[in-house]
Amino acid sequence: RYNREELIAAVSAGMPSKRWKHVEGVMESAVLLAERYGADPVKADLAALLHDLAKFWPIEEQEAVIRDNGLNTELLRHDKQLLHAEVGAFISQRDYGVEDEEVLDAIRYHTSGRERMTLLDKIVCLADYIEPGREFPGVEKIRELAETSLEDALIAGFDSTISFLLEKGKPIFPLTLLARNDLIVNRT
Ligand code: DGI
Ligand code: FE
Ligand code: FE
Ligand code: FE
Predict the structure, then answer these.
(1) Which keywords does the record carry (predicted)?
(2) Chain-centre distance of CA 58, in angstroms?
């Protein structure tokens, strides 16, 4: 079992310092959101710490982890940017001993989202959009929404990703559409 300090050392060693800064920002934002919306801040911190651990692995290695361990091979036919989330969840369990399914799912779905996202899924996914170092058109509006509605902010986040993909003529992973639809339909 790794303690937090050891996880920080291991994860930060596996990525450029700029990406590590992003991870620190996601931890900070995820803990704030957990406190604001009644999730466990310790779980939010752990999921945030691990969420991008595989982001800078060579794509072939990410593909190999998915192929060799019976993970979701559907991902292999989609954008390579989606792989690191599935790989991150698997490595968190196998190599870092994380057994908490809530934490593993929050890592696994932090990029794509999914239908019926848990509170922790939403928090990690949103923190990834709004951490202090993030700069993209519309991020300020998403930060503002995050003050009052986790769901509205996350919908705005998915909207911005989907618009970006449309503009680039790229395919959209079905789970992202399902996640957005589900949040809208169940909006209170
Ligand atoms: O790993 P990060 O850069 O912190 O953020 P992320 O894990 O949310 O990855 C987002 C990237 O994934 C972004 O550049 C868009 C790309 N992407 C490609 N296809 C899809 C997608 N993101 C979503 N949500 N859905 C897609 O279909
Ligand atoms: Fe990511
Ligand atoms: Fe994301
Ligand atoms: Fe991230």
Answers:
(1) Hydrolase, Iron, Metal-binding, Nucleotide-binding
(2) 19
